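Reply to dn_fold:

You asked what the input looked like. This is it:
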Amino acid sequence: MGTDISGVIEIRAADGRWETEVNLLDFRLGRDRSAWECLFGFGNSDDIQRPLFDSRGLPPDASDWVRETGTEDFYGHSHTCATWAEVAAIDWDAPLADGPARYWAARWRPGPTGELVRHDVVPATVDLADAASDIFGGHMLLAPSQWPPGGEVPLDGAVYRPVVLTARMLVPPDEAPWAQVWQTMRELAADIGAENVRLVVWFG
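and this is what came back:
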């Protein structure tokens, strides 16, 4: 057992009422806590201080299906929403926090010319924290946010550096599974307008 994400893509009809168009179950989003916290503020890692669409609640004009199935009576909680106009305006490279993440690190590897290039962003492991303690001193495991300015840790053929998270790092907009959600909303908005397409999500 565990928490799952539920939700729909809604469209606003000509009479102004919102209707359910697509169920998020169709996209098989799985359980990605990092994506949930980045997009919707569902989480408490402290590495993400500015989620994109945080705890807005259930829209009062939500479609009938959402009001009937996505309420607390059906174990739904932590509702939030966003129109396609808002999603389309996301700055995917804006920092989500004011300082380096505690639970993530940037992994750098040699590029074609031999210079280090950022390869990806990965969860900070116990082995990494232990190696940082050996390099920077102390008897405690050191998370990346605790490393000194300019600090880096070589480990297993890579170099790790602290990183300030962005939405692109955690939920790349052009990669599955969320890319399919955005594409569906984009296509609907092309027909009926960006303000008339809305994502509504909740957890339970």
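The mean pLDDT is 94.
Hope that clears it up.
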